[in-house]
Amino acid sequence: MTTDQPSVVPDDDKITPDLLKIAGVVVLGAIMSILDVTVVNVALPTFQTELSSNGEPLSYSTVAWTATAYMLALAAVIPLTGWAADRFGTKRLYMTAIALFTIGSLLCATAWNIEALIGFRVLQGLGGGMLMPLGMTIMTKAAGPHRMGRLMAILGVPMLLGPILGPILGGVLIDAASWHWVFLINLPIGIIGLLYAQRVLPKDAPEPSEKLDVVGMILLSPGLALLLYGVSSIPEEGTVLALKVLLPAIVGVLLIGAFVFWSFKPQHPLLDLRLFRDRNLTVSIITMFLFAAAFFGALLLVPTYFQQVDGYSVKKAGLLIAAQGIGAMLTMPIAGALTDKMPVGRIVPFGFLGILIGVFGLAQSTDPGTSDWTIMGWLFITGLGMGATMMPLFTSALKTLKASDVARGSTLLNVTQQVASATGIATISVVLTNAMKSGAVIAGSEQLPGVEGGLTPAQLAAGSHTEQGSGLVDALGVPANVLAQGFQDLADAFQSSYWVAFFVLVATLVPVAFLPRKREKSHLLDDQDGATPPIMMH
């Protein structure tokens, strides 16, 4: 294999301009992929009215498919990324992923109805699903073991800021222009990313020796998609026992189980489970699963709390939770530098302590009337912990792998994070929804046709800040004391949800205790034959 640039990056401690340029390419791709998820979530109410064909607003469950279809496409394509990187080369595949995502974004902006939008979101997801695992592979191979922590910290910035900036950007674009710009904003970023990648990344000259694991693909990709579809249907159904949840989830688990048995037969399986022989990867993935499920599930609740309890706009809620991103940005470069100098087992526990303190504080601060500054303070502490936790975990997982295993290792990490985030969001959403349903029903189904079971004070309070919700409260003649009790019940529901996340994070301390506390030899500079690999993986 040859490149048009020097093939080896000297393994020293310097962050060179060439490395920063490569990091810039990866960050651009990550920004597009991650930001798009939260930006589109803000636009769902707009889709309900503006993409309706008969004048009647579309149901939320229908428009939610614009988010679900994207996530399912992500889940289906991620396992293929490791094989495709070996087969076609990282540069070609990365540029293809950016192009797919950008074309998908342009088509989304031209969607004439909800069905077209859902279809174009699938195309977007096929590109977006490859961006993160490929980006991690590129960064890992470019950095070498001595600089990996600092460069991975750079990649962590968009992962943290996406959920924070998404609602703000989405609200601004929809208010100032139209929902089309939620997708059109990706066009200039995608074009810049393509030109940047073409110029900065070394040329590919792959010499593929592996065949595609077709059986593995048939089992794993549909299995992941079905499992995530079932899990993502839990909030809508309100129970794990619904057929819409159980059937796809069970079929998905069976397919994934069949893949596990199959994966040890071919020499090069689609997802190499033999990598779990690496202790650091195994411990990091277990930690990542529990951490992502709890943290991302709880993270989703914060802007919802500001909107439903305090009545803030999407933009103001997004600005307030920026405190968490600021905290993370302060500790992330420090943690990245420390990860290059000491084992992550001596760094991550301190980050987890910050997260536990922050989430504990949030659980104590849900009462109506709680100062914004108090909540922002707890979010800031949570962010400090987050910045010292997430990217060191990624670094620990990949640092001791052989160079030839990095693409599949990053694929395994991204599959884990995707499943964990979906599981956490679904679980905590159900906890919140069911807690809001507890209590006396004050508006029955006979008063509210089409609303199954009626509404509790907490449910009325949750929507009372919207024009439609306040009109409903007035029409029903809900007394002020009942509405006040509804807000207290709503605050208690958020508190219950935060406690669930807190106890999962406490459980995560068990695998955290097994993270490496001694420096271990990195194999990033060793390929399977012991030779030194080039800067990029092909």
UniProtKB/TrEMBL annotation:
Residues 22-519 form the Major facilitator superfamily (MFS) profile domain. GO terms for molecular function: transmembrane transporter activity. CDD domains: MFS_LmrB_MDR_like. It is found in: Cell membrane. It is a multi-pass membrane protein. The keyword Transport applies. InterPro entries: EmrB-like (IPR004638), MFS (IPR011701), MFS_dom (IPR020846), MFS_trans_sf (IPR036259). GO terms for cellular component: plasma membrane. Keywords: Cell membrane, Membrane, Transmembrane, Transmembrane helix, Transport. Signal peptide: none annotated. Pfam families: MFS_1. It comes from the Bacteria. The chain crosses the membrane at residues 22-43, 63-81, 93-112, 118-139, 151-173, 179-197, 217-235, 241-264, 285-306, 318-337, 344-363, 375-398, 497-515. This is MFS transporter. It comes from Aeromicrobium endophyticum. The lineage of its organism: Bacteria, Bacillati, Actinomycetota, Actinomycetes, Propionibacteriales.
